[in-house]
């Protein structure tokens, strides 16, 4: 029998640090909503390189029964998180969060809070697994437990999404439909999210959108960072929709399109149109 193919790992802690280190930093509101307590047992879905997970773990105490477990589908991120942040209150597991039914720690339940930052728009990409993600999170929580998260919401980086779609058609030779289907993201509205949370049994305490333009990190001499580094890292799955030989041309086209929209006249800085969806939902 053929061995099932492992999905490609698009992430690397180094590239993430160069192109998007602001992601775990711009989290003061969602962390206020999470309000980690010493005794809390907290799951972090799509924990990435574990920087934020470790920050949360610093607020919990093993002697009070507290612990934080980060789950992520990227072997490279989980390796880096284990190397740099594993400790008495903080651990990490490789886990595809679209298949949480296979996660023993989650099935055991007993979690006080489930947290996620900047990951659910990837995890919820496929329509057929969306509802099960919410159901598994609900089952894992104690009664009264909270699901607290921030993710891309409706309209997030719309210029990037439109730029990739246009470039995949004009330079990649895809049809418009194929180009749209190459998007790795799902950016829901607050209405969609409130309905979904309610359907699986949560009481929605907060569900809000914030338009938060975010400055791209400076470009580095090695080509990482900057708008190009962000597009290459976050848009890797768009690029994979075309043969390797066409990817650089597609990327240059996207950069050209997006640059015209996000570059600020006064100082040449580039600001992407981030729209964040934040929610706090309580298990009844
Ligand atoms: C932008 S990073 C955010 C990482 C971290 N939460 C932070 O705030 O820095 C998105 C993360 O979602 C993870 N991810 C995407 N799809 C996933 C899936 N199906 N299951 C688990 N993690 C996933 C990626 O591997 C990546 O680490």
TrEMBL record:
GO molecular function annotation: methyltransferase activity
Any Gene Ontology biological process: methylation
Name the UniProt record assigns to this protein: Methyltransferase domain-containing protein
Residues covered by the Methyltransferase domain: 42-145
PANTHER family registered for this protein in UniProt: TRANS-ACONITATE 2-METHYLTRANSFERASE, TRANS-ACONITATE 2-METHYLTRANSFERASE-RELATED
Species annotation: Meristemomyces frigidus
Keyword annotations from UniProtKB, A to Z: Methyltransferase, Transferase
Coiled-coil zones: none
Top-level taxonomy: Eukaryota, Fungi, Dikarya, Ascomycota, Pezizomycotina
InterPro entries, alphabetized: Methyltransf_25 (IPR041698), SAM-dependent_MTases_sf (IPR029063)
SUPFAM superfamilies: S-adenosyl-L-methionine-dependent methyltransferases
Pfam family, any one: Methyltransf_25
